Amino acid sequence: MKMKLFLGILLAGMTGLASCSDYLDETPDKSGSAYIYHMDQLYGMMGSVDLYLLDGPSSMAYGFINAYWGEQVFLNDAAEYDPEFYVRGLESGSANAYDIYSWGSDELTDQYTMGLTWTPSWERIYRFNTVLENLDLVQQTTQDDYNQVKGEALFGRAYYHFLLMVQYCLWDEDAPGIGYRDNTTAGEVPERQTVGYTLGRIYADLDSAMVALTAAGRTSFDIETNFRPTVPTVQAFRARVDLYRGNYESALQNATAALNAYNVLEDFKNDPEYALTPYMNIYLLDETNSAVAGTLPIQIMMDLSERGAEAVAEYTEFYLPNMTYENYYDVIPISEMFYNLWDRENDARWLHFYSSDSPLLYASGACESAALPDGTVLPYAITWENQQWLNEQPWSWHSYSRFSCNGSGSLLGMTTAEMYLIKAECEARAGNTGAAAEDLKTLRRTRFYDQTAADNIQGTLQDVIDERLREMGVIWRFFDIKRLNGADNAGITISREILTDPTDLNSVTTLEIAPDDPRWALPFYNIEAELMGWEQNPGWD
Questions:
Q1: Pick from 341, 317, 36: which is nearest to 184 by CA?
Q2: Which uninterrupted H or E stretch holds 418?
Q3: Helix (H) or strand (E) segment spanning residue 370
Q4: What is the mean pLDDT of residues 331-352?
Q5: Could you tell me which of 177, 75, 78, 96 has the C-alpha nearest to residue 519?
Q6: 3-state SS of the chain: helix, strand, coil percent to 5?
Q7: What are phi and psi of 283, to 5 degrees?
Q8: Following DSSP, what letter does each residue of 196-265 receive, concatenated?
Q9: b or e along 521-540 (b: 16 or more beta carbons within 10 Å of the residue's beta carbon)?
Q10: Residue 299: phi, psi to the nearest 5?
Q11: Roughly what angle, to the nearest 10 degrees, separates helices 231-245 and 474-488?
Q12: Which residue stretches of 77-142 are H helix?
């Protein structure tokens, strides 16, 4: 019942089911409204970790947080469910994931999925609007506090509107936007105006946030309080928005400014908390399937996994500690294209985050228990016959794991690595390939075991885009395909073999999502669209 009530909150209060108490954790009066009377309350609200970490440390300690953009890992060319590998065992636990992978609407418009992506964004926008509406009504402290709280709330409102716009809108300026929620009036639905309008409101909030945070003296960056936006945080986010829109000169200026304020890159390959620890073995049987011919060791970053939210909050590359949990649908095997992008001997990102072999543990038709003639029972073993076809498509049995022991925590908040990549891309586009190459090398020297290999890169635009995919992973590829097709007419098409019947290999067909396909704007959840009076995005009816 509690979950149903939670999912019924439209635009965080629009239906009247939610009051201020739902968002400010204050004791409500008899009318259901919270008492908000002092700036300290608003200041504390803006310092709440869950504004960006979502469910907060208590939930993350158990390995689960809200899955912003979780659907997008399946909707791009860096992820691949090979039909044979899928039928041989993955379908038993990944039917919902396969519906998304096939660009089906059932899972994308599911009410449960709404609670992971759509609802939390609007809830936080409601919180920011509540703070902004009460700024001048509460007992004041200092002008600096006032300006800081105002700047943080304006930033947060822009941040979550952008997440919604990128996911649910096409790229074009005159395409339908997300609307802009700038008040807490119950029952008021933001009109769905154009992307250009939504974007203009985002930029306006960021401009005002910069003014307020500068006036508050919040012009430097402090990793210990990185969950409270500062001027460098706004610059980093603006660089991301600029890049998405093809505003490359402005993106370069903002990325450079953010890096001038803070430019730490983690050399995690030498960090003991990232050390790979033997976890278990998958046994490879010989030609007779009666003896062990070798092992495939599974390693994980145990120390990092056991630290839960602390590992994220203290990750030194973050301008804003925001992440998403991708792996709520078991595993997302990577594609052949993505697999072939890697230097799999020297790149620590591959060795630490992708070489997990975890899909094999879910593929019961490829990896299963085996009893040997001597009575030994192996919990995970691969027959000789299965090894042959698996060796022909090794990308199928690699997936992504970063902050979670058996899952995939993907970074949503802006990082220093992202700023180096944005800076390099803008320089490459301006013909400054030498400067772009130096930015890429600076990043790669913290990622590669072999420094000669790290420096083996040029500064072409394609080099930057490939490095961006390696660094930012499959969740960001959807974002990049949409922006490259929109800003550059890149002509990137999603083409994949899918199963119309996920249990039958004979049902293979080809799915193609062209650059101009309206489905690049993901569907609204049906109940929400009906309540708002918004038409469903085209292609999902």
A1: 36
A2: helix 416-429
A3: strand 368-371
A4: 92
A5: 75
A6: 50, 10, 40
A7: -95, 135
A8: HHHHHHHHHHHHHHHHHHHHTT--S--GGGTTS--HHHHHHHHHHHHHHHT-HHHHHHHHHHHHHH----
A9: bbbbbeebbeebebeebeeb
A10: -125, 145
A11: 60
A12: 83-87, 95-101, 111-114, 118-134
| Phi, psi (degrees; rounded to nearest 5) at 109 | -105, 15
How many Cβ atoms are within 10 Å of 57's Cβ, its own excluded?
15
Query: Please, which residues have CB within 8 angstroms of residue 374's CB and are 6 or more apart in sequence?
Result: none
pLDDT score at 92: 56
DSSP letter string over 148-197?
HHHHHHHHHHHHHHHHHHHHHS-SSTTSB---------TTPPPP--BHHH
Q: pTM for this structure?
A: 0.91
Encode pLDDT of 349-396 as tens digits.
999 888 778 788 878 888 999 999 999 999 999 999 999 988 998 998
Amino acid at 445: R
Q: Which residues pair with 511 in a beta bridge?
A: 496
Task: Catalogue the E-assigned strands of 18-77.
Answer: none
Q: What interhelical angle do 416-429 and 248-261 show, nearest 10?
A: 140
The answer to whether residue 507 scores a pLDDT higher than 50 is yes
Q: How many CB atoms lie within 10 A of CB 484?
A: 17
Tell me the CA distances in angstroms from 178 to 69, 245, 247, 360, one per residue in order.
16, 16, 20, 40
**Partners of 411 in beta bridges:** 323
Torsion over CA: 482, 483, 487, 489 (sign): negative
Q: Are 386 and 366 in contact (CB under 8 A)?
A: yes
Q: Which of 112-116, 123-127, 136-140 has the lowest mean pLDDT?
A: 112-116
Whose tokens are 């990102």? That residue is 349
d(CA 538, CA 29): 44
Please count the other Cβ atoms lying within 10 Å of the Cβ belonging to residue 336: 13
DSSP 354: I
**CA 249 to chain CA centroid, nearest Å:** 25
The average confidence (pLDDT) of the chain is 85
Tokens in use for 25? 């954790």
Query: Torsion-angle region of residue 315: left (phi > 0), alpha (psi -120 to 50) or beta?
Result: beta
pLDDT tens by residue, 400-425 = 777 654 456 778 899 999 999 999 99
**Separation in Å, CA 284 to CA 362, 363, 481:** 16, 15, 38
Report the half-sphere exposure of 396 (CA within 13 A, side-chain side). Answer: 21
CA distances from 523 to 72, 77, 96, 241, 458 (A): 12, 20, 16, 22, 39
> ∠ at Cα 205 (232, 227), nearest 5°?
40
Say whether pLDDT at 268 is over 70.
yes
Higher pLDDT, 134 or 15: 134
The tokens of 423 are what? 């800076």
